[in-house]
Amino acid sequence: MKNSIKTVLLLVVLLQLTIFSFSQEINSKANTTNFSGAITATNNGISIIPTFSLNKPAAIFDMSAEKGRFSFDPELGFSLEGKPWIFLFWLRYKLKKEGKLKIHIGTQYGLAFRSVPIITNGISTETITAQRYLAGEFSPNYFISKNVRVGVYYLYSKGLDSYAIQNTHFLTINSTFSNIKLTNQYCINFTPQFYYLNLNGIDGFYFTSTLSLIKKNFPFSISCRINQVIKTNIADSPNFIWNIGLVYSLGGK
Q: How far apart are CA 243 and CA 237, in angstroms?
């Protein structure tokens, strides 16, 4: 357990030092590149597709390097035991970034890790294997006002290994209500969405939402996420999952 805590703390320190050094370098050159990041500690890691979860505490490291219309957005997830969970490497491009309608596209190389028991010389041990994925996304969003947005998000993922899910279709109808004022210092963000998931021809409908409590000019926030089955044919799809996380945002915007 001590080694796991040391691993997470080391990753936190390295992420902060990396973003700080990058920001210093970019600012010194008066460039427009923006570096930012966030660290989330949660009781249950939930994937970008909320049907999939780690079912144990996790630490998630989000980073972003943005310049012009392009951004590189890696996401690294670990269990608090220090084992890798999911690595996503996104390259995104803003097709339309001005006006009320904003559209971006992206491509992703992903790794999903799992522990597999093996027996060597009669001794049971465990090894970690990775499933490789290549994905693409399309996301148009319409801003009704500064703090109210509605949109559609579509992701297609192709498994690169024979034992991985070969074809994943993930389609959402979503919205965001941001900066809902509670007091002069506190506000909440609310992001509900309905989504359709198809895994190799087997599908289901779900509802998920995220609620975040934010204090102005303070790097820490609290988020809570739920995922509820509406109707599904996907085996082993949990009827209801949730998590709560402590988020530390740093660098950039």
A: 16
